[in-house]
Amino acid sequence: MPDQSEITMSRTTRVFGRRDLIKFLKPESSKEVSRAHFTIMHEDGAFYLREGAPDRKNPKEWRPSANEISINGVVLHPGTKHKLNPADVIDVEQLGLNLTFKTL
Description:
Blueprint: E1 13-16, H1 18-21, E2 38-43, E3 46-51, E4 53-54, E5 62-63, E6 69-71, E7 74-75, E8 81-83, E9 89-92, E10 97-100
Antiparallel strand pairs: 1-2, 2-3, 3-8, 4-5, 6-7, 6-9, 9-10
């Protein structure tokens, strides 16, 4: 996180959004981060980031985010799943809010 804090995943899937990132955003930028902006999941021994989040009513369906996310400068398309590597930089909506992925 920008303040060097860390978020530990205690589940195999975690949705990140405005509530997680609000303290790092300027007030005028908060609407540019979706409530469910991206999901990090652990599958088959690897971590993946997927733009958007599972639909609450039908978890097999995927809800894309209304806003962008990029990894290492490459914008992910809605629903795109990307395998995360240590030191990958996750940029939320090109707001200069860069998160660095690492494993323990």
